[in-house]
Amino acid sequence: MLSVSASEAGTRASDVATATLRGAGWRFASELSGKAMLFVSTIVLARLLDPDDFGVAAYALTLIAMFSAVPALGLGPAIIYHADDERFASTGFWLGLAAAVAGTALVWLLAPLSEHLFGDPRAVHVTRAMALVFPIEALSNVHAARMRKRLAFRRSVAPELTRSLVKGITSISLAFAGAGAWALIGGTLGGALAAVPVYWVVLGWRPRLLFDRGAAAALIPFGGHLVAVNTLGAAVRNLDYLIVGRVLGATVLGVYVLAFRLPDLLIRNLVAVLSQVLLPIYAKLREQRAAVGDAFVTTTSYVVAVTAPLAIGLALLAEPIVITAFSEKWLDVVPVVLPICLYALFVSVSFNIGDLYKALGRPDVLTRLGLVRAAIALPALYGAAAVGGSAAAVGWAQAGTALAMMGIELAVARAIFALPVGTALARLVPVLAACAAMAAAVLALRAPLSGQPAALALAAGVALGALVYGLALRLLARRFVITALAAIRGALDRRRPAWEAAPAP
User: Fold this and answer.
1) Which listed site, 203, 272, 462, 467, has its alpha carbon 20 to 30 Å from 114?
2) Structure confidence by residue, pLDDT tens digits, 59-92
3) Selection from 485, 468, 461 nearest residue 434 by Cα
4) d(Cα 348, Cα 18) in Å, to the nearest integer?
5) Closest to 271 (Cα-Cα) out of 294, 313, 300
6) Per the confidence metrics, is the pTM higher than 0.90?
7) In this structure, are residues 333 and 322 in contact, taking their beta carbons and an 8 Å threshold?
8) What's the CA gap between 35 and 31, in Å, rounded?
9) SS3 sequence, 443-475?
């Protein structure tokens, strides 16, 4: 007979799995529809634009991404952490809007430095244009945070789908008109602007003309830590783009950017979706350390069970995917995909630790880890670009950095927060064994399909890989699969509550 504590632990794990899957399901439905549009538009744009166009647009996208945390002030997670109170919501809205306008003005003043940074005068104008995204997104950031706090991810489907549709349609239209790199910039701005009114309508909340000093005093210190964390994280995540653009030029940067699209769509996007779901869930559990440990083990094992086969499959089928989707014009992308897939896999193993630190009120730990990551990544990436002289070399440096940081982050989580890292890693053994069986099967298929059309090789590889992985995982980890299927059924069962959110305003 189970003890009370064991029963409670099992219930908690089930609740976490159900709430996570239900929230992730809606978020992933939103992202999947949006990313499907993004993938379609990427295919079209890759045939209309040159690598140089992608590279020039990446100048602006990189710089804006690196510093976007500053005007955001970390207000989204701060609002999730604090009470669901109108004082915090309205004060956070006006704080965020003021900071975004100031951030745009600062970028306009400093934009000429981007020419010296990349060695390309085209960087100045695209960077100034992209800075307009700060105040546009500030108009809906609090709305998105309140949805996350209430686990109301179903409501986010409409605005995010609107964003993706408008972004894709605008980009493709501008590309057909011969706008070049501006097609990508215009699409990003158009999509962000279109999402704002939908967020306001779907949530039904309007900010009041209210600024509470007490609320601001609570939001700013918490958000301030996250500004440092997120700025460091964004800087490290985009450091490779910066170095490739600076050392190797816009054309190679365009190849590198496109190589990231596939892992972004399938692996890093899944991790980002779950991150949005897990922060409010961990925040609810923060007083129950045992429950936090259970949640960590559960999410790590289930996430890697999805990301590992995706990463390995993408790496093994990179050539037929690139030829089928983007055309042979982009064959230089193929050798870059393997290291980028490994990078995405390593990131997925320890991704949820950052959300745990935020939920436990310790974002300062993330700041220190960000400094460590920067210290490792900067020499590794610059050396790879300068000595290796290729996008693939930089990709391998990224993978090595991610592997090192995965080990460090897991060690810190175990030492400081007593998270059951060993248990989580042990759960991954059958998953990795199933991936090895899948890889062997896909590799064995290469010789028989040599010389066949890329689309046929891709379809056969995907079908065989999925079949072998599913059978191997069921054979090696039957209980794991049964538990996962039960969690999915629970997430789909509308009669079962999964930490119901507070009522809408």
Assistant:
1) 272
2) 998 888 888 777 666 677 777 777 677 888 888 8
3) 468
4) 20
5) 300
6) no
7) yes
8) 6
9) HHHHCCCCCCCHHHHHHHHHHHHHHHHHHHHHH
